[in-house]
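Progress report, Aim 2. The chain analyzed during this reporting quarter is listed below.
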Amino acid sequence: MSTYRLNNLLSPRSVALVGASARSGSVGRAVLENIRKVGFKGQFGLVNPRHAEIGGVAAVKSLDRLDFVPELVVITAPAGEIPGIVDQAGRLGSAGALIVSAGLGQGPGSLHEATSTAARKHGMRLIGPNCLGIMMPGVSLNASFAAHMPGAGNLALISQSGAIAAGMVDWAAQRGVGFSGIVSIGDQIDVDIADLLDHFAMDHKTRAILLYIEAIKDARKFMSAARAAARVKPVVVVKSGRMAQGAKAAATHTGALAGADAVYDAAFRRAGVLRVSDLRELFDCAETLGRVESPTGKRLAILTNGGGIGVLAIDRLVELGGIPATISAEARKKLDAALPPTWSGANPVDIVGDADASRYAVALEELLADRDNDAVLVLNVQTAIASAAEIATTVTELVRRYREQHRSWAKPVLAAWVGADQHIIQTLSSAGVPNYPTEDDAVRGFMYLVRHREVVEELSQVPPAMPDTFVPDARGARQIVTAAVADGREWLEPVEIKHLLEAYDIAMVPTYAATDVEQAVAYANDIFAQGDTVVLKIMSRDIVHKSDVGGVVLNLTTPEAVRVAATGIIARAKKLRPEARIGGVIVQAMVVKAKARELILGLADDPTFGTVVVFGRGGTAVEIINDKALALPPLDLQLARDLIERTRVSRLLRAYRDVPAVKLDAVAMVLVKLAQMAADIPEIREFDINPLLADESGVTAVDARVAVGPPQRKFVGSGPANFAVRAYPSQWERRLELKDDWHIFVRPMRPEDEPIIHEFLGHVTPHDLRLRFFAPMKEFTHEFIARLTQLDYARAMAFIAFDEATGEMVGVVRLHSDSIYESGEYAILLRSDLKGRGLGWALMQLIIDYARSEGLKAISGDVLQENTVMLDMCRQLGFEVKPDPSEPDLCDVKLKL
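Predicted structure tokens for the chain:
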């Protein structure tokens, strides 16, 4: 698993520092001082071959001279020594190393490669190199050269920048915000963002995960980990380089629209990660998510002593998609009785500028009791009449009492004291009340909570590979594309594109390829006979943008007009592009739909995330208008609708004045079909449909361009190698017949299976649960089960078995691959009353078949020595069974594939 040994690195019982310098101001000396200052409670040793002691701490010359084996080795030694240090640590049995030093280089023959090889040989995990270090308040470990150590709390920070991590620590110290862990990952020689997401998602001390990202190396692994983590707790990201342009020049409009940052945006959205634009927003997000749970809705009540600031807060709330809460009749009656007659009578609840602590208390109490809101924001503008500090104290005491009375779940209460001094901030923070300098920041904080709740709901949806009602001619389409690639071409011909679209049931205007002028006239006559006018376009593999050479003539109504236009088009193309190969002209019916909207739909290829689906407003000025949205495939109709709704042109698709609404699902279905086409035909590099005409009757493609090339395998494992997100693998659904005519249906697990899992576990005895989880299991929390059901169908897979007669779940088997996708760890659990009927054997065979199909080299597992039934089955299936050298109660079982 990608979390293998991470707990040893992040919560070690013993630490050794190698390379601490006696020189004041050096990195090694700073790390040593930080470890000592915080008071790490485990065993600690110092290694330095040139000094017997540093800063009063005795040192030994090498790791093997310590009187203990360190779980974690922190390395600040020169780069050239690091491979040897890692190798020695591995031979001794260390779990991993934190490499603070820089200078390991990259590529074959580098110190980076030598260090990685040494670690892998011993099963060690590595953090770094070139990083600030790690800070783990829960175990009093500050193995970093940061200036401060954060307090313990419930936020985790994973950062590609040491400076950002250090800045977060300084901010946290001022706001009283604590961390469950801070990890600066540096060059990610081994442990990467995805590994740490997996770790902190499972960490019960972590409420929310903050990320600072510069670039993602393994997109599929990141998407898998981020989606799984975001389902159980908020994940917030700042991504630098928002304005950076993609390095690859785009050949199509969709390629140009799919800029690098726009693709990251789409990826974060699909992963359920909340993206913020800068560190201030990240701080505000941390302030909110670290203190309160998400509300059940987005109705916000605002309590204020200043009408103007309350109205500003309402304006921002509406702008960001929140809902100003109404005041129920019952609550209004109580507020009327308790407040002066000059109170606002509505939301925002303005209790007037002379409001004191008691007035705030009575109003807040009523709003917390009112079921017509989901959260309360308390605003205070300081006056000379009432003490802002006293009001803050009163509010925090009331919030404490309210939370004690509602332990299972309490409404979020947020605050903004304008111009507050540090004492007021501390009062609010110490009570766990998220507080902000302005009403704008506070409203944004509330909307982060709302967005997280929406994300969890969205992530529970699993898109199928393709709607059951649609079966494309994928084989015929693939033949068109592969033939062009075999011919060495980079672009499909227009007639090939028409056949490609037909294979996926996407309507296109009648299109013909004419090699000369007279053939163009003949095709035009066929179109005239249907009552349509004609458009001519230059046909050349070398001229992608036809209008650049005057290669398009519209609205031709007679054969003679076609003859003149065709002659002129070919002549202009030869003059302006003498090097281009001219194949003739394309003859198309000219579709005139006065009330149709021009859209652009297509596919683009991103170097990090693979295939991306693009939707937006079409026409010749698409890059200038720049009204587009992106999504990662696969798509279903709901995801396609969401993609459409994220554009401005989506408003024009609705009915207005005498213009009827577009048949929206017809547009969404084209997006789903394009996503499926990308999965079926990885040779497609870029795809433009521009414009796609959409109206109340449906959609028609007017023009399209398709760039092709040899397929590029971006991601390991099965499924489309150009997709960073996998579809639900319906191809693995099975019907099995076992002993005694027992019929079983097996399918991959889905996120919505959580209630089924809870019910199933009620039929498993405590003894069998202990054999599966290696410890007594008295309770299964929502978070625990949710984590089991959140699969990416890439690194993690699970199959659920159902009794076809009763529909009840009877067993489950799962597999989780390691961080480098070479081997997987399996686990299996059956209903205790249905064991001995062949189900375990069938599920084990299924997971072995799946592992083979994924290209894994081995699967393994840990089995208790007393679980003789499982050990016997493993032997019969060909597993090698060995005692675990470090755990006498366990056996290691391994099957080479």
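Residues 439-459 form the longest helix (21 residues). The two ends are 18 Å apart (CA to CA). These observations will guide the mutagenesis work planned for the next reporting period.
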